[in-house]
C-alpha cells in the first residue's frame, strides 16, 4: 500500500515538471515502472508535430497556380489596371414607343373602294412600294380631264403654228392669228391645271408624264382609232397607294371592298413603322431636370439580365405635367435586333456627371475574403491575392486608392473561381 501511494506521488510530480524537464519525466517513468506512450515521432519532444511529412513542399500563401489553358477554360477575363472616369447616373423608369419620325399612316387621298390589299399584318414594306389599289370615280374623272386637255393642247398647237405661218406671210388676218394664239395659251393652262389636280390626288410628276405618254395613241390615230382609244382609257379608275417609308406593317385598318375617304368612312389603310430605332419616353421629376439635357447618353435595361442598350436624349420638354410635376424626356435607341418592343417598360440610367480617377477596376474583379476587399493579380504561375483600398465608385467600376499599380493585370471577370480555388487550397492546408 505504501509503495502504491509513493508511485502515485511520483507520477503527479512528474506531470507537473515533465513539461519543463524532460529528463525528470523519464526518470519518474523508470522508477514508477509505468508504460506511458512515447512522444510522437517527428515531433519536437514537446508534443507539437509539424503536420507534414519530410520532403513535402508548400506553395506561397494566397497564390493560385493556374496555367493559361486552365484560365481560358474557366473563362477568367484578364484586364489591365488603368485610369478612367467614374459616372454618376440618374435612374428613371420609361416606356418604349415608336419613333414618331419613323411611323407612317398610309391613307387614300381620294374617295373610293378597296380593290386590292397587297400587304399582310407584320410584313416588310419598301419605300414607294404599292401596298393597296383603290377603284375611284374621282381618279377616273381627273385622268379623263387630263387626257382631254393634252389632246386639245396638241390640236390647238397645230392650229396656232398654222396661223402663225400664214400671218408671217401676211396671208391671214392678224385677228385670226391672235385668236389662235389665245386659244393655244388657254389649252396650255388647262393641261397645267389638270396636272396639278392629279398631283393633289397623290400622283407624282413622273406618273403624270406617263399619263401624257398613254394619251399619245389618241392624238396620232386617224382612221379606225376606236381600238387605241379603248386601250388608253382602260383602268382609269385604278388608284395605287404607295408606302411613304420602309418598315413593317404594324396595323391594317380596312378589308377588301371597304369604302374609304368618304364622310364617316375610314381614311387610313395601313400603319407602317420602321422599328430599327425606337423612342424611350421618360418622366423626370422637376427636381432632377437641372442635370438632364439633350445629347446626354443613356443606358436602357429591361431588368432581364441582358446587356443594356446605349442611346441619347433627343428631347426635353420645357413644360411640366401639372399633375405629376414632371417633364417628358425622350431618348432615341437603336433597335436593329428588334429587342425593344413598343409598350415595354424599361429603366433608363442617365449619365449626369463624370469624374476622372487614376486607377479603376470593374466591380466584378473584387472579392471579399476574411472581411477584406481583394483582387487577384496575374503572375507567371497564375494569380496572387492582393488586398486593396477602395475609393469612390459607380455602378460598374470602383476607384483603387492603394494596393495596385497602373499596368498590372488582374482577373476582371469570373474572379469568384479564383476565390473558390484559394479557399479549397487553404482548407487542404489546415487538414
UniProtKB/TrEMBL annotation:
Gene source species: Enterovirga aerilata
Annotated CzcB-like barrel-sandwich hybrid domain residues: 102-274
Alphabetic keyword roster: Transport
Occurrences of domain CzcB-like alpha-helical hairpin (ranges): 141-200
Lineage: Bacteria, Pseudomonadati, Pseudomonadota, Alphaproteobacteria, Hyphomicrobiales
SUPFAM superfamilies: HlyD-like secretion proteins
Biased composition (Basic and acidic residues): 43-60
Family in the record: Belongs to the membrane fusion protein (MFP) (TC 8.A.1) family.
UniProt entry tagged with the keyword Transport: yes
Any one GO BP annotation for this protein: copper ion export
CzcB-like C-terminal circularly permuted SH3-like domain location: 360-419
Pfam families attached to this UniProt entry: Beta-barrel_RND_2 (PF25954), BSH_CzcB (PF25973), CzcB_C (PF25975), HH_CzcB (PF25893)
Annotated stretches, region: Disordered: 35-60
Residues in CusB-like beta-barrel domain copies: 277-350
Name recorded for this polypeptide: Efflux RND transporter periplasmic adaptor subunit
GO molecular function: transition metal ion binding; transmembrane transporter activity
Cellular component aspect of the GO annotation: membrane; outer membrane-bounded periplasmic space
Xref: Gene3D superfamilies: 2.40.30.170, 2.40.420.20, 2.40.50.100, Helix hairpin bin
The organism's place on the tree of life at top rank: Bacteria
PANTHER family xref list: CATION EFFLUX SYSTEM PROTEIN CUSB (PTHR30097), SLR6042 PROTEIN (PTHR30097:SF4)
Amino acid at each position: 500500500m505504501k509503495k502504491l501511494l509513493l508511485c502515485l506521488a511520483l507520477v503527479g510530480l512528474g506531470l507537473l515538471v515533465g513539461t519543463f524537464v524532460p529528463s525528470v519525466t523519464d526518470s519518474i517513468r523508470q522508477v514508477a515502472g509505468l508504460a506511458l506512450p512515447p512522444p510522437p515521432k517527428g515531433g519536437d519532444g514537446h508534443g507539437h508535430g509539424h503536420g507534414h511529412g519530410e520532403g513535402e513542399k508548400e506553395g506561397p500563401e494566397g497564390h493560385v497556380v493556374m496555367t493559361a489553358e486552365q484560365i481560358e477554360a474557366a473563362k477568367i477575363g484578364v484586364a489591365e489596371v488603368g485610369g478612367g472616369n467614374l459616372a454618376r447616373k440618374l435612374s428613371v423608369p420609361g416606356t418604349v414607343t415608336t419613333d414618331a419620325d419613323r411611323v407612317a399612316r398610309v391613307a387614300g387621298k381620294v374617295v373610293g373602294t378597296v380593290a386590292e390589299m397587297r400587304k399582310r399584318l407584320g410584313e416588310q414594306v419598301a419605300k414607294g412600294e404599292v401596298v393597296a389599289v383603290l377603284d375611284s370615280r374621282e381618279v377616273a374623272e381627273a385622268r379623263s380631264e387630263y387626257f382631254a386637255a393634252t389632246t386639245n393642247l396638241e390640236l390647238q398647237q397645230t392650229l396656232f403654228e398654222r396661223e402663225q405661218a400664214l400671218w408671217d406671210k401676211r396671208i391671214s388676218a392678224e385677228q385670226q392669228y391672235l385668236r389662235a394664239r389665245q386659244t393655244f395659251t388657254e389649252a396650255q393652262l388647262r393641261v397645267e391645271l389638270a396636272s396639278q389636280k392629279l398631283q393633289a390626288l397623290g400622283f407624282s410628276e413622273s406618273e403624270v408624264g406617263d399619263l401624257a405618254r398613254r394619251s399619245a395613241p389618241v392624238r396620232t390615230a386617224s382612221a379606225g382609232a376606236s381600238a387605241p382609244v379603248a386601250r388608253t382609257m382602260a383602268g382609269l379608275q385604278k388608284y395605287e397607294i404607295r408606302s411613304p417609308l420602309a418598315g413593317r406593317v404594324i396595323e391594317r385598318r380596312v378589308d377588301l371592298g371597304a369604302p374609304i375617304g368618304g364622310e364617316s368612312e375610314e381614311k387610313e389603310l395601313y400603319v407602317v413603322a420602321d422599328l430599327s430605332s425606337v423612342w424611350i419616353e421618360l418622366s423626370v421629376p422637376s427636381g432632377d431636370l437641372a442635370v438632364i439635357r439633350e445629347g446626354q447618353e443613356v443606358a436602357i435595361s429591361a431588368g432581364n439580365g441582358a446587356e443594356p442598350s446605349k442611346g441619347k436624349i433627343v428631347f426635353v420638354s420645357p413644360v411640366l405635367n401639372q399633375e405629376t410635376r414632371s417633364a417628358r424626356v425622350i431618348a432615341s435607341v437603336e433597335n436593329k435586333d428588334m429587342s425593344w418592343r413598343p409598350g415595354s417598360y424599361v429603366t433608363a440610367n442617365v449619365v449626369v456627371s463624370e469624374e476622372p480617377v487614376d486607377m479603376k477596376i470593374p466591380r466584378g474583379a473584387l472579392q471579399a475574403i476574411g472581411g477584406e476587399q481583394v483582387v487577384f493579380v496575374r503572375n507567371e504561375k497564375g494569380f496572387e491575392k492582393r488586398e486593396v483600398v477602395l475609393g469612390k465608385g459607380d455602378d460598374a467600376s470602383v476607384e483603387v486608392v492603394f494596393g495596385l499599380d497602373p499596368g498590372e493585370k488582374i482577373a476582371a471577370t469570373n474572379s469568384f473561381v479564383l476565390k473558390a480555388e484559394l479557399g479549397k487550397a487553404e482548407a487542404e492546408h489546415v487538414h
